[in-house]
Write a structure and sequence with these properties.
about 200 residues; alpha+beta; globular; Glutaredoxin
Length: about 200
Amino acid sequence: MAISLALQRPEEDGQTVRPTPALRAIVDDATAPRAGPADADVTIVLFTDYQCAVCRATDPALERLIDRDRRVRVIFKDWPIFGANSVMAARVAMAADRQGKYLALHRALMTSHEPINAATLPAIAARAGVDWAKLAADLAAHGTEIDTALAAHAREARSLGLQGTPGYLIGPYLVRSGLRDGPLKRKVAAARRSAS
């Protein structure tokens, strides 16, 4: 019921955030997985957790936006706040980025009907085209870097005042709720107007 109420509440208009060096560092983070062109006119930073029901319900809108709007870039900030399985999924997704498979695995995790845990992750990854042996090797070799990045994502989320997932930074707007297609498109359009 709480999930239903969260999804039914109107999306926030979005708080306008001032451009600061800290904000620029969040957007310019070269270690975070991304989708879309480097020369996009709107950047969306998404803070998300694979076990967050609202994230899972609203992620398809973001997927459609990425597929349709070639002037949008999305920077993914995995912020695993729902326990050990969320941390495991975030680490696996970030390791998959080393194969160029972050977005495919992100989508597979967001749409999986199975619980996310150590037993199901290899099959979910395989469906996304991830080489599990390579991923395991990348986790072993780069686990500390991945953990450092996840800790940075958590600090960034807190610095923005986020109290949970999902959280979006769309141009100069911070939105602390899930966004479906219409509100997401409107916020992107507003970000474009603010940049011109």
